[in-house]
Amino acid sequence: MSTEETKPVAKPEPVKELPKFEKSIADKLTEKFGTKAAVEFVKPLRIRVKVAKEDVVEVAKFLRDEMHFDHAESVTGVDYPDAKEIEVVYHLGSYTDSELANQVLALATRAPREENPNPGSDNTRLPSLRDVFYSVEFHERECFEMLGVYFTGHPDNRRLLLPEDWADLPPMRKDFHIKGR
């Protein structure tokens, strides 16, 4: 009798087929932009695409004009202090194309993150998508205020929630701490 234990042989997982409709959208983006638009995932009703900040306006216009994603449902941001970047994600949808009614396309781009932010006067900047999707107007203002991302070309980079004289770190950054606690 052998003292070695026998390990069960792992069965390979079946390859999941990507949803055809969503894959067709991802394929059109890849065909048009190549590596400039990195499709990060394709799932039922969801696609995530990451682009460099230099390409975000061009990709957004293509998504609006050619792919019929006609509005941004929301805009959010994520602070990555270890990578020294802040990611802004636009969740795009369509009111006008019934095939896209339930789809959400996440368009993500990143800006450099300053250790000592001075919003509007540092390198944490992204081009605004306000002229592509009017619906981002207040969302970009919130990202400016809460994460310190200044949107170049936005007609109104002012605070929405915090006092105009706010002098602390943007409150959605991971190194923000409430004073006195």
TrEMBL record:
Residues 49-180 form the NADH:ubiquinone oxidoreductase 30kDa subunit domain. Pfam families: Complex1_30kDa. One of its GO terms (molecular function) is NADH dehydrogenase (ubiquinone) activity. Keywords: Transport. Coiled coil: none annotated. Belongs to the complex I 30 kDa subunit family. This is NADH dehydrogenase. It comes from Candidatus Nitrosotenuis cloacae.
